[in-house]
Automatic annotation (TrEMBL):
<dbReference type="InterPro" id="IPR037523">
    <property type="entry name" value="VOC_core"/>
</dbReference>
<dbReference type="InterPro" id="IPR029068">
    <property type="entry name" value="Glyas_Bleomycin-R_OHBP_Dase"/>
</dbReference>
<feature type="domain" description="VOC">
    <location>
        <begin position="9"/>
        <end position="128"/>
    </location>
</feature>
<dbReference type="InterPro" id="IPR004360">
    <property type="entry name" value="Glyas_Fos-R_dOase_dom"/>
</dbReference>
<dbReference type="Pfam" id="PF00903">
    <property type="entry name" value="Glyoxalase"/>
</dbReference>
<protein>
    <submittedName>
        <fullName>VOC family protein</fullName>
    </submittedName>
</protein>
Length: 282
């Protein structure tokens, strides 16, 4: 894992907050299968960490929570980036031993495992190939969805899985949106990201030449509605800007586009055009 893409040279996803139907059930999964530690906890909310100090994921059980709604905008998956390929091998072996249902892909820039939590919230756990091996053509990074070579990955296994490594970060978030062009205008023209890959029904955006910090797709249908506020799925995610000026410039562009902005939590709350809630901070 190259820290450049999650440093003051980049705008990146800091943490993600999701809704679940049963906090205790979800906590068991996220501790024993994924390997998180508890950072903070109250009756309806748990903040989870890998390094014991940095929030990566918050689980919240809303009042009168609704089960995951299909064919809506919102979370496709959040993606935990592990420091090394050996870490991914350990996680794969752990999932096989625990009989966890997995998907797996080789994206050329990375190798990824896919699973869902007990409520159907999508999760990717992945490791990157060295950025020097990524192919760029006309400012577009070459990505694909190929079968993962599992035996080759497991050959990297060095130690059994215990917990998420300390240097795990939230590598990216992938969202269902209602309209791609509308989302592109908001995230690129407004928030300041760059389009780095186009895919059928999807586009991938980043800063600092990462393969993607955010994925956007219309795979739940063009014009998909937003879910109810108390349903399982995404509550909000945080974007961390490299400095105050870069953040202020993004806020100015959003204001010029008449996007509603609320100052909160040492930053700003905004909704994208598909009603995905975002906390912007430096």
């Amino acid at each position: 894992m190259e820290r450049t893409f999650f440093s003051n040279r980049a705008t990146y996803v800091g943490d993600v907050s999701i809704h679940v139907t049963n906090l205790n059930n979800s906590l068991d999964f996220y501790q024993n299968i994924i390997g998180f530690h508890i950072l903070e906890r109250n009756e309806r909310k748990v903040v989870l960490t890998a390094d014991g100090k940095t929030s990566l994921l918050t689980l919240e059980e809303p009042e009168k929570v609704l089960s995951k709604q299909v064919k809506t905008t919102g979370l496709y998956h959040f993606a935990l980036l592990l420091p090394t390929r050996a870490d991914l091998a350990s996680f794969l072996m752990h999932c096989l031993q625990q009989n966890v249902q997995l998907g797996a892909s080789d994206h050329l820039v990375s190798e990824a495992l896919y699973l869902s939590d007990p409520d159907g919230n999508g999760i990717e756990v992945y490791s990157d190939r060295l950025s020097s091996a990524w192919e760029w053509i006309n400012n577009q990074v070459t990505m694909a969805t190929e079968p993962l070579e599992g035996e080759g990955l497991l050959a990297e296994l060095k130690s059994p899985w215990m917990y998420l490594p300390n240097k795990t970060v939230m590598g990216h978030i992938h969202l269902h949106v209602a309209h791609l062009e509308e989302a592109k205008q908001f995230y690129v023209e407004g928030l300041g990201f760059n389009v780095v890959s186009n895919y059928p029904g999807a586009l991938f955006i980043s800063t600092a030449n990462y393969h993607h910090h955010i994925g956007l797709n219309i795979w739940n249908g063009e014009g998909a509605p937003a879910p109810e506020n108390n349903s399982v799925g995404l509550k909000l995610f945080t974007l961390v800007y490299p400095d105050k000026q870069t953040l202020d410039d993004a806020i100015d562009r959003l204001k010029a586009s008449e996007v509603k902005i609320k100052e909160e939590n040492n930053g700003y709350l905004v909704e994208d055009p598909s009603k995905n809630l975002i906390h912007l901070r430096k």
